[in-house]
Amino acid sequence: MQKLGDFKLPQFFNYPPYFTLQPVRETRDKQVQLWKEMILDYCRTQKIYVIGLEEDFPLFTNHVIERSLSHEARQAFLSALVSDGRAEWMDKSHRKCLILWHRVQDWADLILHFVKENGLEDSVMTVEEIRSGTESRGTELHGMDRTVLMRALKLLEHKGKLVIFKGTSADDEGVKFSV
Amino acid sequence: MRRRPGIGGLQNAAAARDQFRALGDNVAKLRTDLMKEQLSTFRSQLEDFARKHKNDIRKNPAFRSQFHEMCAKVGVDPLASNKGFWAELLGIGDFYYELGVQIVDICLATRPLNGGLINLEELCKLLRQRRKTAREAVSEDDCLRAISKLKVLGSGFEVISVGKRKLVRSVPTELNKDHNEILELAQVQGFVTVEEVERRLTWSPGRAIDALDSLLDEGLAMIDDGHQDGKRRYWFPCVSSISSYVGTDTL
């Protein structure tokens, strides 16, 4: 099986027609499904949070078979992920896409778990500390994308599990947990 | 006895005919009885054979295939019913039933990718992958038998020949001669272009496009506009020997 880094590429990736948007409905549905799964899997294993449509995202081109996804195809597959709630457009012109290989709710659950595991139920932490502090090392929270983290924190704030407050500088946002 | 004309004569002729007929019936009955006896001897010998070689039949596809041929010659169908001597002795009914179910599953799973036509080799490969832990090996002959049993159930499965390959069809799509010729042409590289079809089969442009588009509509073909030369290619998953593009775990 072909690999991209340590990622095992599924077989369909080597079949040229999959790089052309299929006109027949049933065939197209299957094509979209395969691409969605592969994109999510790849982003999850490589910890990729953002895909730029006009950039060189490795899955968009297969050099071995000399095929590349058209802009329209890229739009189609990413839009399908957005419809599934597994991605969000970051801009109106749909040039950047935030990939939620964990849903925001899943990230929120991970944060709650992290809080409980580390006895932080009533503590205060900066947002940065959550994603790069020593406690988060070895967990999925470590190194996570800040945008996604903020989304998860806002969700938890909405549920009354914490309060977000601004610190002394713009970079210094903090969180008071009340789990 | 001198033949006498008149009613008496007729009655005698009738009686004679009856006697001949009775004799004829007897002979026929004798022949049938003899045949039945021979057949029943054959059958019991076959049963003995099956009993003795049960394991070989189970484990060895080539042996199994020859056994089937033997049975066919004697007019015995071990798969005719799931009950009775054969099914119980060999458990062979279950084996083919199980295969049939797995074949249907695979065809359904790959249908969105190949439009309901899959080549036999591909099907067997997927079947074997699926049955990795099973004790019994599976041959193409086994697949064909399982499929013919499926046909009896009226499930719309059929095996068709295109060029050198056998394709298993699991949808009611009828392939006409034009379609068949394109599929045969496609076997060389896995795809065709309109130009190629026109040239090699000496068809008019309209005819080529119509046939290709209808194959596309049936889900049997996929388009590829990504080649440098800018020519559209029509790919046919059912003639490719690339393993299905569905991971085996999905099956």
UniProtKB/TrEMBL annotation, chain A:
Keywords of this entry: Protein transport, Transport
Cited Pfam families: ESCRT-II
Family under the similarity heading: Belongs to the VPS25 family.
Gene Ontology biological process terms from the UniProt entry: macroautophagy; protein transport to vacuole involved in ubiquitin-dependent protein catabolic process via the multivesicular body sorting pathway
Protein name according to UniProt: ESCRT-II complex subunit VPS25
InterPro entries: ESCRT-II_cplx_Vps25-sub, ESCRT-II_cplx_Vps25-sub_N, WH-like_DNA-bd_sf, WH_DNA-bd_sf
One function term, GO molecular function aspect: protein homodimerization activity
Any one cellular-component term (Gene Ontology): ESCRT II complex
Automatic annotation (TrEMBL), chain B:
Key words of the record: Protein transport, Transport
Recorded GO CC terms: ESCRT II complex
Pfam families given in the database record: EAP30
Record's signal peptide: none
BP GO terms, sorted: protein transport to vacuole involved in ubiquitin-dependent protein catabolic process via the multivesicular body sorting pathway
Annotated coiled-coil segments of the chain: none
UniProt function note: Component of the endosomal sorting complex required for transport II (ESCRT-II), which is required for multivesicular body (MVB) formation and sorting of endosomal cargo proteins into MVBs.
Subunit structure: Component of the endosomal sorting complex required for transport II (ESCRT-II).
Family affiliation: Belongs to the SNF8 family.
Protein name, as recorded: Vacuolar protein sorting-associated protein
Organism: Escallonia herrerae
